[in-house]
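Dear Dr. H.,

I hope your travels went smoothly. While you were away I took the liberty of generating a structure for the chain from your last submission, since the lab meeting agenda had it listed for discussion. I wanted you to have the full record in hand beforehand rather than looking at slides cold. The sequence, exactly as received, is reproduced here:
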Amino acid sequence: MPIFTARSLDLQATGPLIDLLLSVSEPAAKAMAQAGEGVPPPVKVRALIDTGASRSIIQNEIVEGLDLLPVGALRMNTTALTGLPCYEFLLNGSFHGLSFTGVFIGAPLKGQEIQALIGRDILAHFILTYSGPDNSFTLCS
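The corresponding predicted structure, in token form, is as follows:
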């Protein structure tokens, strides 16, 4: 069972952050190759593990760089906006030996030092332990 543990100087202030490697899904890579298109290389993003987010989000600019076609569309509600039109994208993700395939909502994450949020939809496949006194968190599959 792969296990990843990280420590922070002030976990309460920064939250649980990971460097996440995102790539196009296997079906998208296959379709790109069959169409004679190049498959974009994986991109590294800074992601916040957010148990308050029901869905995972990726910054729109990252999606544009991967040249992806959406797999769905929705209207998203946030604490600041209601009915924001967004697209959904199927992506492969990996970090420190843990991997997953999940649907990310392409949305603006302006004014933040992160490019993605890992929500409960992806966290449902992992065990998350948050240790405030130790300023650490652990994810395992």
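Two observations you may find useful: The chain has one domain: 16-125. Helices lie at 11-14, 26-34, 60-66, 120-123.

With kind regards,
E. W.
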